[in-house]
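lol so apparently i was supposed to do this last week
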Amino acid sequence: MKLRILSVFLAALLLVPTAWAGFVTFESAGADPASITPTRDAFRTAVGGGTIAGANGSFGGLRREINWDGVPNNLSDPNALPANFFNVNSPRGAVLSTPGTGFLVSANAGLATPALFGFGSDFQSFSAQRLFTAVGSNITDVLFYVPGTMTVATTSAFAAIFVDVEVAAQTRIEFFDESNSIIFSRDALVAGNQGLSFVGAVANAGERISRVRLTSGMNTLISNGVLGNPNDDIVVMDDFLYAEPQALQSVPEPSSFPLVALGLLGCLAGLRRRHHSI
Ligand SMILES: [Ca+2]
Ligand SMILES: [Ca+2]
Ligand SMILES: [Ca+2]
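anyway here it is w/ calcium ion bound
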């Protein structure tokens, strides 16, 4: 009888759905850096790590930030940014991916290549002077590693600053878990021409983010001053902020739970039989 009760209990356990308690969202939009700085600061406080960057964009070992400003000229517009720059050249545990053709970091002013991707009347920086964009796509995926290694990792918080969001519901941030299920999505607030939009979230119940997808408007950048299509809205990015990537925990895959439970039941049945035979 005890075994039967235990069986029902275990079966019920297997039917319990995964519950995501949600995320705490941080968002604001405005005409200049000062208008979103309080939200950036609140996100920083929520994640921890202080306000002074150490080596490789590390804030107290708790948070990393990428502001693109230290990327050298030879890896900035018109030259492509390597997808693994922020895990190899400057190891911060973030590797980029896009369905497009690559990535660009904008040139500083005063060089042969115009600053701000050649759209000085549309873009401004939050952190001077460089901005970031995928090339030939409005999609940038961020994958996490233990910084400087190929050990797959997850994070618990991520935020990005979008530039020049003028149309609602085309620019957003999405989080995916280890099984590639979406666990968070939030549209960036409209900031108007040349404006800045901060959007991010912090896990509040142990959720782990394996991948962040950033969708920046509907238009795409092909090269300095050249757009990919006639659609509004062209949007690029500035600072990324995220909790320190941590190595994946070695927990059983959800699909193996029934096998584990069956094995446990088998052991209990064996024990019960042995008990009766004594
Ligand atoms: Ca604009
Ligand atoms: Ca910047
Ligand atoms: Ca725009």
